[in-house]
Amino acid sequence: MEQAEKGQVKSLVKALELLDILSNQQAPMTLRELYQVSGYPKSTIYALLSTLRAYGCIRQESDGRYYLGMKLFQWGCSVSASWDIIRLARPYLERLARDTGSTALLSRVEGSSITVIDQCVSGAGIRVASEMGSHVSLYATSQGKLLLASLSDSAVRRLIPEGKLQAFTPHTLTDLPALLADLERIRTQGYAIENGEYKIGLRSVSAPVYSRENDIAYIVSAVGLFRRVESDEFDLVIRQTCDDARALSLQNGGGGCAEKPCLPR
């Protein structure tokens, strides 16, 4: 596991890492399993879990396994309630899903991480839902490629070294020069497209929502089982996604996007 940096409380770092392990596992774990993953002494893990359990962050059932506690859910609800962007974005997501028959997503950008924070699923056709709170691939999804396009090529190379591009489908761009060429197209057009690169048959478009500092703070996406990206149907999805992202940027106080949701070069 990662070592605590200077100025950090080691026991707190270990406790947070145990919570992170349980979250990533998405299933209850025994003390032995936590020991095997974390590498911490069992006595240390037991003491940390006992403290977390006292605060409702961990619960232990009769089978001895440890689960994430309801206190974390309550904290998560408090965090989401503080995001005014969700209230602002909801009408746009609902309209985007209704008019395009897609699943409309709102994702939050933090550094090089993208997290889905809200979605609206169309009631028509096959439903495509995304797991709330999930992180998305940086190079195989439209959201991830949009974020990469806001960086320089050298920054992308540092973030995703050559040979580190895993193939999710036969359409995934696993060649770094090909990915960089795609990012250049995204910078020019101001939006990103996913064409079956993460999941076969799944296509999406993403457009940026800017902060007051003109950084990409959020991303609006339309995801669905569209037949082709070269079609009038998909052109309509692109246009509405970009329009909604531009309008949400202005409501969010974002500057530099009044004409189109362009990306910084």
UniProtKB/TrEMBL annotation:
It comes from the Bacteria. Residues 9-70 form the HTH iclR-type domain. GO terms for biological process: negative regulation of DNA-templated transcription. Residues 71-254 form the IclR-ED domain. One of its GO terms (molecular function) is DNA binding. SMART domains: HTH_ICLR (SM00346). Keywords: DNA-binding, Plasmid, Transcription, Transcription regulation. It holds the Pfam family HTH_IclR. This is IclR family transcriptional regulator. The lineage of its organism: Bacteria, Bacillati, Bacillota, Clostridia, Eubacteriales.
